[in-house]
Amino acid sequence: MSVTGAAAHWVDAGHLIWNPGTEAFSYALYYSDNAEIKVYDTEVTGGRFFELEPADEQVPIVQNRLRHLEGRPVFTLMVDKEDIRDAVKGQLIAVAFDGSGYPVAATHVQRHGVLDDLFYYDGKLGSVYHDNSIGLNLWAPTAQRVTLRVYDGEKNLIEEVAPVVESPENGVWRFEGPADWDRMYYRFDIRVYHRQTDTVEQYEVTDPYAVSLSTDSEYSQFVNLAEDPELKPNGWDSLVKELPFPTDITLYEAHMRDFSIIDQTVPEEHRGTYMAFTHNGEDGQDLTDGMDHLKVLADAGLTHLHLLPVNDIASVIEDRSERVDLDDPYRLLCDRLGIEELAEECERYGDQPIRDVFEEMAENDPVTLEIQNTLGARYPDHPARYDGFNWGYDPFHFNVPEGSYSTDPDGPKRILEFREMVQALNDIGLKLVIDVVYNHTHATGLSTYSVLDKVVPDYYQRLNIDTGEVETSTCCSNTAAEFLMMEKLIIDSVLLWAEHYKVDSFRFDLMGHHPKYVMENLQEALNELTVEEHGVDGKGIYIYGEGWNFGEVADNRIFDQATQFMTGGMGIGHFNDRIRDAVKGGFYSWTGRDQGFATGKYLFPNEESNASEEEKAALLDQADRVRVGMAGNLSTYRYVNRFGQAVDGGNEGIGYTLMPQETVNYLDKHDNETLWDNTQAKLPFDMMMEGRVRVHLLSNAFINYGQGVPFYQLGSDLLRSKSMDRDSYDSGDWYNAIDYTMETTHWGKGLPPAWRNEDRWDALRTIMQNENVDITKEHMEFTREVFLDQIRVRYSSPLFRLQSAEEIQKRVAFHNTGPDQDPGLIAMTISDGACAGESLDPNYDGILVLFNADDEPKTVDSGLTGMMLHPLLEDGSDPVLREASITTGGSVQVPALSALVFVKPQAGGQGEFVCNEVE
Description:
By secondary structure, this protein is an alpha+beta fold. The protein is built from 25 helices and 38 strands. α6 (330-337) packs antiparallel against α7 (343-349), α15 packs across α16 and α18 (689-704) runs parallel beside α22.
């Protein structure tokens, strides 16, 4: 008979959970260190076995971390640790027998739980530097043998080193060597059973805890991250950052290559690298266009630069001589691919740079298919894999900076350059966020890009409960942080980046796939970092991420997840899709034409919509979602909804936070279309550019003037386009790069690649060929200046950045609510009057913010006296806003598609202003 899947779970030393699916007389757990077990219809051959006894009892790990196993039969086994230590090193098969001793069911065994129970290790893994020696620790409890191979700088094998103990009881293989191992390279030679091949394999593998690597991650390297002075820029050890309170943060997301790859003011060898950030105008450095762009934003109040993954990734070739980028000749692309279908193009373009060829194609036809075809739609082995671009959500080694972003990927130069980048950003007032991807690995099994699964097969990944196949709901091979050593890896890794690279914030990719308690334990570990001992204020490090609820872990099926509705009160931020979708409109519709509050719903319908009562009701629903989002998306916030009911923010599943820092309010990020591109799909075709730009700025105003943590994608302030690409993860520099001179735009640069866009090409052609969408430098300059005005207004008063739910409940109030509201108008007040308690802003008694999403002006009678247009808008970049005024009785005409801010100056002390009275 066949061995089916891996449905048995050895959850701790004394318990195995398995549903054989049949009545059986006896049960056994077979094990073999040479994978010789065979299950036939009449017998089992090979290996040894432990008897399994059915039991009616609860197993704690199931209730806490493996809820999906609840209700399945439990078996006990009485085995000492020594026998278990031998058993887990080989093939494991659970077998059920009938009364005649014939097998009736058999399955492989998942061993995560028993490894946690008996082999958890809380010490230091990876290299450990001593005064006169270097140690190396590898956790590999299922390995039958491990040898260390040490290589010189040329990758020549110089010695093989046996472990200190030949078969360690705790699963940690220890090696000791001389101090001159420093800067040497190494790999482990491992003999281990791998269920994927159902055999004992032997191979070399890099160190999961490596802190330095060779080019393309082929070898780990010994370096002293903590003490080596050659890896530290001047002043590194004395660099101590003062971190802002979370609600004082504004986040600006960038990709390493996007930031500088076409910035001609950056030295060519530094474009697309860490070093591009060091040209900051400080200490005699030139100031590049990109760094000037960031510096102006920082001066306006922006606090944090968020970089997409910068740890070692598997999806980019680090050896530049093996890559094909836009500035390379077209023939190099042809040579690399060797594809006959390109022969005519190769003959035509020859040594012409690929970038120039693409420019010619796009100039002739802004919706050409030729660019995306060249990038890979035609070919399985597409050219995109040969260029230097990928978003980087393909983790290879978690604790090493990515080598393709360094001027020298072979060895520790990337460490020094990353630190120089951190220091240079701090010089202009920007803190650093890194995007971390602990929810999956790029590969498993025997792949070149597999590390964790080679060292301890089947442990670090989340496996299907029955088949044992690696779950891939995150896109790739999911990890399993519900198991202790994966949790440890996450926490150890974050602490390393925080302490040794002075990273100030972490954005967790698909955080909802991690257990809530893992994030709690991470926060506790970060809180232990102090300036005195570690040079870092761990309590000030902000954690946020994607709290989406989906996949095999959905609805807390396995454990309590770190999702939006599960982590209120922890202080962890979550991307707020409620305000995103309400402002922009439906996010995933096929054509993208479902309008939002700012993009014309009901008020100026596009060609696929109307001004019906149904659309009006949808607009008022969107208005409620915007209001709650701007009130910190608090589940406890009291307001009057569109039906005239006094409800809390959690009504209709909108609000999920208990603290304002727990909402990251955003409209676009690297995923899906840019804000500009998404908006063009929604607006009426006949809308002129002035209106389109104002819709863009109005959309951003909801984020800048709301409570919580604002988040923007690099270039949202420049009308950034990716030629409507909704998934540019591998679309290269052509679709992704940023031009700070604003002489060029990426709108109409060809139809985007097929992998996520082909089903919409017809719609995209229509949208991008609309003559009313014509981005000029003047449009981009205007957008940038008004965007800066909005940020300056936000940072002009702490009232826009309230720190607690209690303050928001008292101070933030919405008017023009209920069923009789004027559609498209949101009126918000923020009080610093006597009714709010202690004064937070010595300049103002209160603020009035008016948003008009209609394409016609609206008159508002606020009833507020003593108000004036905010000085920063009065002297601002938008002439329409400069002309706005408010009467002594509080009446104001709000221009079309605009956001106005009025303030009531304090007159010799705290005065009166309206507070929120909804109970």
